[in-house]
Amino acid sequence: MKKRLFLAVSFSVPVTRRLAEAALKMRPAADKAGIRASWAPSANLHVTLKFLGWTNADVVDAVRDRVREAAAGRKGFDIGARGVGAFPDENHPSVLWIGVTDAHGALKELAETIDVATSKLGFARETRPFHPHVTVARVREGRGGLAEVFAPFRQTDFGQSLVREVVLYESITKSKGSEYVALFRIPLEAAPPRAERQTREVEEGSTSEDANGGPTGESDRARRQLD
Fold this sequence. Notes:
The model is unreliable at 206-227 (pLDDT under 50). The protein has six helices and nine strands; from the N terminus they run E-H-E-E-H-E-E-H-E-H-E-E-E-H-H. The protein is an alpha+beta fold.
């Protein structure tokens, strides 16, 4: 029996909620622009570290052990969500995404370490540069027309979160779309208290206006901390 697997981290509930709200606001503009897409439910919003693909179920324990070794001694770290974009580009979109900021490179380092660790189990190494993002939609039909869809969110900071764990998910295809089931969670060590406080301040900040006049759900103080 095989499972479709990937390793990922997630944002906090407040930040995930803002991402989902932004995606919900993009949908009418995308429809108007002739973009037909499958939009990810809020429960599926995540940042992929390593896509493993179809994998024998009996390898799951070995993956867990390798990831635990890769994460050993690593402390939790902050990541942010900012801006929007499309793969491969906005004129020929296949994926619509919200960007992920990794100010200190901890997310990239973790992804690269996991890439090396899983390669020892036979998984192919990544050949493309690591580009962290949150997929909000997969385009089925339509080209161009994303200027108005993305305009309100190009400069938006959606917030900052403390990454506390790495999760192995199984992607199960159902009639209503994919469901992601967590098979195991590998916790990171506790972050320094100062990082915890800063993240909490960002997540609990009051609503303000972004550069385009839209709500960001963060205080001015939180914005300064993210810049």
